[in-house]
Design a protein that fits this description.
The chain has 193 residues and is an all-alpha fold. The chain is built from 10 helices and no strands. α2 packs antiparallel against α3, α3 runs antiparallel to α4 and α4 runs antiparallel to α5.
Length: 193
């Protein structure tokens, strides 16, 4: 059980107070139980012992996101992490995923309200994700969707091609590309009438 894990990890930390790995595990278990204040305290103590370590920053950001549901705070921490370690694999993945999540929310709202400003903001968030992780095929795909919603079909198809190149197993993207080409052709035909 989680309570037993907490007891064992506390004992391990008492025996090895400088163990960063044990502190991170203890904070994770507190976070899993929804006890954000205790998890943050464990991380603060670890930071006091070890300084600003990328893995501590990642754990704080992950905690803010999963327990506090605070995307803005998590992003701020992840940007600090990127300053220390620009290639931290978990940190860059989480930061990109947060940007994609925010972009997806703007895309959904932009579609629903037919709001070009929200759609442009969505593309901006997907581009932020790509600045952090150039291989984030979903960011290209969703940017393509936002561009298609704005009738920017050529740009949308380019993004879909980039997504397809990064995710070769996602063959369904070819169907999205074909649909976008058909929408563009229909738009051109309507304008010609």
């Amino acid at each position: 059980s989680l309570d037993e894990a907490l007891q064992e990890l506390r004992r391990a930390l008492d025996l090895h107070p400088r163990s960063l790995m044990v502190a991170l595990q203890l904070a994770t278990v507190h976070g899993t139980k929804g006890d954000k204040p205790r998890a943050l305290e464990v991380l603060r103590q670890a930071e006091a012992r070890h300084g600003r370590v990328p893995d501590i920053l990642y754990a704080r950001a992950d905690l803010e996101l999963k327990v506090g549901n605070d995307w803005a705070k998590a992003r701020t921490i992840l940007r600090e992490l990127r300053e220390l370690d620009p290639d931290h694999p978990k940190g860059t993945r989480l930061e990109a995923d947060i940007s994609v999540g925010i972009g997806r929310a703007h895309l959904d709202q932009g579609r629903e309200k037919r709001d070009g400003d929200l759609l442009r903001r969505a593309v901006g968030h997907f581009d932020e994700a790509l600045q952090v992780r150039k291989d984030h095929w979903e960011a290209h795909l969703l940017a393509g969707d936002a561009l298609a919603e704005q009738a920017r079909y050529g740009e949308a198809r380019r993004r879909y091609r980039q997504a397809r190149a990064l995710a070769s197993s996602q063959r369904w993207i070819e169907g999205v590309m074909a649909r976008t080409a058909a929408l563009q052709a229909a738009t051109v035909a309507r304008r010609a009438e």
